Amino acid sequence: MAAKEKIPPSAPSSTAPRFNARESWRIFGIMAEFVEATERLNAIRPAVSIFGSARIPPDHMYYLLAERISRLLSDAGFSVISGGGPGIMEAANKGAYFGKSPSIGLNIQLPMEQSSNPYQDISQTFQHFFARKFMFVRFASAYVVMPGGFGTLDELMEALTLIQTGKGRKIPIILVHGPFWKGMIDWFRDRLVAERMINPEDLDLIQVIDTPEEVVEAIFKHYEHRGFLPLPEEHELLLNL
Q1: What angle in degrees, to the nearest 10, is found between the helix axes of 61-75 and 212-222?
Q2: Whether pTM exceeds 0.85
Q3: 113 compared with 25, residue with greater pLDDT
Q4: What share of the chain is helix, strand, coil (3-state, %, to 5)?
Q5: Percent of the chain's residues with pLDDT above 70
Q6: Which of the 8 DSSP states describes residue 74?
Q7: Which H or E element spans position 122?
Q8: What is the pLDDT of residue 124?
Q9: Which residue, 3, 93, 2, 81, is CA-closest to 48?
Q10: Residues with Cβ < 8 Å from 209, sequence gap 6 or more?
């Protein structure tokens, strides 16, 4: 059977032209998000992106841990980027806000859960997840991943995939609080490595660290023989994310 015989003809619809026009104009909105965010964030390097659950209250140990990590990073000269919402995102922004370096929130418009926290020196709002995710990667010299849900795991897997496939530059990916991540790391080893879904050395892309001081130390160690800014070949990678 020929391909044209497999594809059904388009059903006539009075709304189709209007819908197609909206789809075309939507491209300009996406372009505007990329341009505006790139211009606003271009001077924040070096920066660290911190991820974690939006559902963590301010008195939780994860919140306090994220706030301490962020404060140490800020005082060490790193801008801190979070998703701009509540929970661990707020903790990350709060730590940086009272530190020496900028606190950046990349907010997303959602029908539920997301509301901007007040601890942001630079606040940028996105309608599209993919534009927002690009900015997390584009400007980060390291990823610090706190306990979280689907959104946190999505960001983690995106970073791992980009680095594993050579589409993104190799930066530290640090998972904080070993007991939370142990089951996932064990599954990676027992299933993904054992069944050859990934290579054993792919696990080396991840560090599991428990204390704020060690998080900062690990990032500095990664860059001890080079600068924090992307090398020429890494800059080329970032242009082709």
Answers
A1: 40
A2: yes
A3: 25
A4: 50, 15, 35
A5: 93
A6: H
A7: strand 122-126
A8: 92
A9: 81
A10: 174, 175, 176, 178, 215, 218
CA distances from 176 to 50, 147, 168, 205, 216 (A): 10, 7, 22, 14, 12
Q: Measured between alpha carbons, how far is 151 from 133 in angstroms, rounded to an integer?
A: 11
Tokens of 217: 């130390």
Whether the CB-CB separation of 210 and 175 falls below 8 Å is answered with: no
The residues that bridge with 117 in the sheet, in sequence order, are none
Direct distance between the N- and C-terminal alpha carbons of the chain, in angstroms, rounded to an integer: 38
Q: What are phi and psi of 90, to 5 degrees?
A: -65, -45
Contact between residue 174 and residue 209 where contact means Cβ atoms under 8 Å apart: yes
What was the pLDDT predicted at 68? Answer: 98
What is the C-alpha to C-alpha distance for residues 138 and 134, in angstroms, rounded to an integer?
6
Label residue 141 left, alpha or beta by phi (over 0 means left) and psi (-120 to 50 means alpha): alpha
Read off the pLDDT band of 30 (50, 70, 90).
Answer: confident
Distance CA 39, CA 15 (A): 37
Residue 174 CA to residue 143 CA, distance in Å, equals: 6
235 pLDDT tier (thresholds 50, 70, 90): confident
The H or E element spanning position 17 is: helix 16-41
Starting from the edge strand earliest in sequence, which strands make up the sheet with 206-209, in order? 122-126, 103-108, 79-82, 47-51, 142-145, 173-176, 206-209
Residue with token string 């996105």: 126
